[in-house]
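Input.
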Amino acid sequence: MSDQRCLPDTISNILSSRVPKSFDDKRSTNYRPAGVLLPLLEEGGVCKVLFTKRTDSVEHHKGQISFPGGAVDKRDTSIEETVLRETYEEIGLSEKDIEILGRIDDALTVASNYVIHPLVGMVRSMDDLAINRAEVKRVITVPLSLFHGTDSEKRRYPVKYDGVTYETPAYKYCEHTIWGATAGIMENFMEIIGDKLCLPRIQK
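Output.
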């Protein structure tokens, strides 16, 4: 691939070669299960990550930069079904628009008590994008290279949210701050694939 293009087969092979770390044990009994999609896409030859900016009317994570996804429904038969259902409900992309590439390590949220099971997917088409305005304010695409190139200690910042200050992984992109579980999931993804893809390192 060229320096900034995603190869789905390469990422799929990397993810399939490892066993994701799981919280499916007694440590997560007080947490509710959720699934999210880490969506990759190509825009103008650049590999990007798609995020949603949540509205201020949702129950959890108001106004935050997040991944498409949500809580596991009792009718869901798998995490993949949860992720595809929630992605369709939030931004209109369905199974035909997304190629699931694999799973990365579970993550925990601090304030809302979720254990998150992240799946990585390649967005084949954005033609059917339809934002659910009750949940999503807008969609943001960020170059994958933004998340590559600094050690984790330099990515931890105090972030004030809802009257509480969190010491958290965080990334700045334009006027947006990507932090909390979302930043932690990106950090984990880059630890897994970053040095195996030809991505430019961003100087901070």
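The chain is about 20% helix and 35% strand.
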